[in-house]
Design a protein that fits this description.
The chain is an alpha+beta fold. It has a domain at about 55-165: DNA-directed RNA polymerase, insert domain (RNA Polymerase Alpha Subunit, Chain A, domain 2). It is built from four helices and 15 strands. The strands form five sheets. The protein has a five-stranded antiparallel sheet. A four-stranded antiparallel sheet has the order 3-4-15-14. A two-stranded antiparallel sheet has the order 1-2. β3 (about 15) and β4 (about 25-35) form a beta hairpin. The longest helix is centred in the N-terminal third of the chain and has 15 residues, at about 35-50. The two termini are about 25 Å apart. About 30% of the residues are buried.
Length: about 220
């Protein structure tokens, strides 16, 4: 149902399809729009959702005893480059604005996953089953990671600080919590007129933000 303002039809609200809603997917419907406005609004919302929402990501790592990302790590199957690629897939939910340090500190053999990451109550790991590395023999290992908030994609070069400590490896960061947005427009009726627009939007997130909340930012 819509509202009318100076002979201009516009939606009263954006309705969520609760039957299909999950922590990472949501479908939303808004109607009626004046003809052509559904596409205009859909394009604008899609652009904002993909580029302008804040999220959290690791911006640099430091592995004890490792000087650069091409180093081999004694007792670890993966090299530093592979570990960086795995850490880039880490999904985090941050409840603070400033940079935060999280870490892995283990002395064992076997798979190390995101659930081995030590955080405080301001950082939540959304995908704790993410594989980070494999230790082939009983080895002491410490990895420190800096977490920051940001928007969109930031390459490693921009995450590099002027006076970086030796061994700190800046990494590419994908901050956006929204992975994908689709929309399409259908005809809808207002009274006897059937040439108004119905906007249907689908939003996929990485789980660090609810699809409903993504629209509220």
């Amino acid at each position: 149902m819509g509202v009318r303002w100076k002979s201009f039809e516009m939606p009263k609200s954006l309705i969520c399809d609760e039957a299909t809603l999950t922590p990472t997917y949501g479908k939303f419907i808004a109607e009626p729009f004046e003809r052509g406005y559904g596409t205009t609004i859909g394009n604008s919302l899609r652009r904002v959702l993909l580029s302008s929402l804040e999220g959290s990501a690791v911006t640099s790592i430091k592995v004890d005893g490792v000087l650069h990302e091409f180093s081999a790590i004694p007792g670890v199957i993966e090299d530093a480059t592979e570990i960086v690629l795995n850490i880039k897939q880490l999904i985090l939910k941050s409840y603070t604005r400033g940079p935060k340090m999280i870490h892995i500190d283990v002395e064992k053999k076997g798979d190390i996953t995101a659930k081995d990451i030590v955080t405080d109550d301001t950082i939540e790991v959304v995908n704790p089953d993410l594989h980070i590395l494999t230790i082939s023999k009983n080895t002491k290992l410490r990895i420190e990671m800096e977490v920051n908030r940001g928007r969109g994609y930031v390459p490693a070069e921009r995450n590099k600080k002027e006076r970086e400590a030796i061994g700190v490896i800046p990494i590419d960061s994908i901050f956006s919590p929204v992975k994908k947005v689709n929309f399409h427009v259908e005809n809808t009726r207002v009274g006897q007129m059937t040439d108004y627009d119905k906007l249907i939007m689908e939003i996929w997130t990485n789980g660090s933000v609810d699809p409903k909340d993504a629209l509220l930012y």
